[in-house]
Amino acid sequence: MTTDHAELFSALMDREAVDPEALARALEDPEARRALVGFATVRRELHAPAPGEREWIVAQAPRLAAMRPSRDRWRLVAAAVLLAAGLGAGVVAERYRSQQRPPEPTRIVQLDALPVNP
To answer: Rounded distance, CA 37 to CA 93, Å?
Structure first.
């Protein structure tokens, strides 16, 4: 088996695109086929639950379920804080924008047009 075969099988296990012709050539080598089986075994072991993991999850489920209302409460508080901050920012922006306008006139002076001499 060559390093190219190992890289090809590694890419295949990582769900990357591989050249079908190169894969067919690699599978013709018996040593490369054993390496592919080894890669598959490692992948299965990595994705398998750890010993005792299921029992631990079952034991922790009541505690995690009891924490859920607390989490929901914090999410509600966070949403309220964000809403208040957004409203406050809107009020501040409106006040700032209103200061950018020219002042309202207190009196209006009308000027007569001057006659134009031709």
So the answer is: 64
Tokens of 73: 């409460």
Reported as a single tens digit per residue, the pLDDT across 76-102 is: 999 999 999 999 999 988 887 766 777
3-state SS track over the chain: CCHHHHHHHHHHHCCCCCCHHHHHHHHCCHHHHHHHHHHHHHHHHHHCCCCCHHHHHHHHHHHHHHHHHHHHHHHHHHHHHHHHHHHHHHHHHHHHHHHCCCCCCCCCCCCCCCCCCC
Where are the chain's structural domains? 3-47, 52-98
**What's this model's pTM, rounded to 2 decimal places?**
0.41
